[in-house]
Each structure stands twice: as C-alpha cells, then as structure tokens.
C-alpha cells in the first residue's frame, strides 16, 4: 500500500508525540513493504532536506511562520501535493487540520484523523483559537473515515461528546537501559537528581513542579529539560519560582544523553494534563523510573499503581520529601513501572496502524459519517478513570466490549 502521513513537523522526530509516532510507525510500515510518504515542515535556512529516512519518502514543504497558522498552512500545502500524488490511505495528525478533510474526501482518498488530546484546553490559544479547536473536533468527526485516539480518556471523550467510535492506538514505550557516561558531562550521578522533561506550557505544569520542589526539603537537585518556543513570559515565571537547587538544561537533543537522564533519575515528575498518552511518560516508565504525575486520567491510565499523583505545589513538595525518605518504595515503583511499559510496544502499535490502513484502502468504513453535532447533555471532559483501574473487559471478535457507540480496536500495544 501507499500510505501518507500528514499534519506533523515530520521526521526525524525532534519535537513531540506526533512526530515520534510518525517515525516509529512509519519506519515499521516501510519495513513491511509499504510505500510510506511523510510530509515534513521545512524551515528557512534548513541545511538538510533528505529525500528518504528509515525507508520513508519525505516531502518537504514550508509553513507560515506564525503560531496560529503554522500547522494548517503546512497541512494545506501537503494536501494539495497529496491530491496530485494518489495514495491508498492517509493518516492526518491533529484535529486542527480537519477543515482540509473535504478535499481528501472529494478526491476519494480514505483518511483517518489522529485527534490527539483536548487541544482547546491549552492556555496558549486565546478564545478564538479555543473555539477553532472545538469546531475542528466536530469537523474531524464529520469528515474522517475513522478517528484515532491515543488514550482511553480521549476515546471516552469522543464517545460522550459525539457518540462516535474511535480506534485506540497508543504509543510505544522504549525499554531503556543506557550507560552513565553522559551524566558526568552534566555533573550528575545515577539516582542523584529528580527530572522534568517538558515544553514550557501551562498545561504541562512545569511551574507547579518547580514551585512545589522549591517548597520541599529535597537534597537532590531538580533537573529541568525543555523550553518554550512561544512563551517567554511563562519561561520567566518558571525560572522565577526556582531556587539554587533547580538546574535548567534547556533542550537536550542528544538522545543518548536524554535516555541516560531518564534512566538514572531518582524520580521523574510529569505535569502534562491535556495531551493524551505522552511519549515522555512512556520513556520514563520504560526506563524503570519512579513517576510523580499530575492527576488526570491520561496519566493514571499509563502508570496505574506504580505512580504517585499531584495537583498543587503543596502536593509536589510532600511527594518529593516522601520519595527521598523512602528509597525502597521508589525502587519498587520503578520496577512496577517497567513492567507496565512492556504493554506499550511499537511493533504492535504499527500493526494496528497497518490494519487500519487496510480497512481504509479496502473501503471498509461507514458509508455515512456522523453529523459532528455534540450531544446536548455531554460534559466537556471525560470522567476520570477509576484508580486502581478495573480489569480489562472481555474481548468480543477482536474488540473490547465497551458498550454502545464504541468500537475500540484491541491490539497488544494499545492500552485499553
């Protein structure tokens, strides 16, 4: 099959979850003999624009250099190119690209939209942007042949808001066991620091973590990896909350060094709250690191009983102090986290994408799509996942029995 992947910054993956998924899934589909075309966002002065990467064909196209227009402008050029270069199936990442779906439908190109998290809840979008994302969700429901969710909470949200099924495909958790040589370059020792890896955005709660850590009596430093591409004010706030125990590394682009940071942290603090299943969290549990996470259903789905949860700086302070006073419990949590990571396998996730692509290419999709109207009585946020999570429901003909209006495709790599 010829499979197109549209709507991300492209590969190599250097930004976020979408790019990670495209790289990990795309290269596996290419290894299975499929022709995979990835649309990549070019930037002014970009030194290299390779035509192939890990078996995938790359198409480089520009984008408007404005946050509100960057994604949609690049995706519009990608769709225009795709219309002239037919494909058997297309995966469009990000519901924000939904206004472009009618062009693909008019060209009879079957398409699945990866709807990601609750993007309209991000503070970086003003009222107009938030309304746009709410509208885009409805358009994705109406004009996609299938929807992909990467977390059960997202699947629940689309079922409760629109009464529509989703295909649940998470990310893989790499099993990390690196050396320690690159920690020395940073003046760090194994088990001698707490770690945060996140873009500086309000929904990632880096400020809550730094503030809470400052209030703690921790003796191990807090190492913060990440930056804010658009928000100088938020970055200044985060730095202003820190004390001398907090070390800001900025972006770490050496993957070996980043893996060593994950694997040898005493705890990993994860503040993400709206983006569904998060690759950074999966990398942490794959490294066998104990996790302190912001208390939302997406995070509870992943770390289950291996983690501890916070919502305020006071919670963070208490958790960090408790962690440093109980190393035996922290080691036990790390072992449990690594066990859970085995349920997130990129090979199985790629098999799920391949199966969905075959359904799309074979036109095994509903002839009529839902209206995209929201249920009047629906709530805006899915109910939290109970903790500990209930046992997995029985399988019915390869699917999980989830009740009316649901069609969650069950794969070994998909957290149910």
Model description:
- With 416 residues, the protein is α/β, with parallel strands linked by helices.
- It has two domains: 2-172 and 346-400, 3-Layer(aba) Sandwich (Rossmann fold); 181-341, 3-Layer(aba) Sandwich (Rossmann fold).
- 38% of the residues lie in helices and 15% in strands.
- It has 14 helices and 16 strands.
- It has helices at 17-31, 67-84, 101-106, 127-143, 152-162, 181-184, 206-215, 232-241, 255-263, 279-286, 297-303, 313-325, 327-341, 346-361; strands spanning 2-6, 35-41, 52-53, 56-61, 89-93, 111-114, 146-149, 167-168, 194-197, 222-225, 246-250, 267-270, 290-294, 308-310, 395-396, 399-400.
- The protein has an eight-stranded mixed β-sheet with strand order 3-4-2-1-5-6-7-8, sandwiched between helices.
- Strand 6, helix 4 and strand 7 form a beta-alpha-beta unit.
- Helix 7 (206-215) runs parallel beside helix 8.
- The longest helix has 18 residues, at 67-84.
- The radius of gyration is 21 Å and the shape is globular.
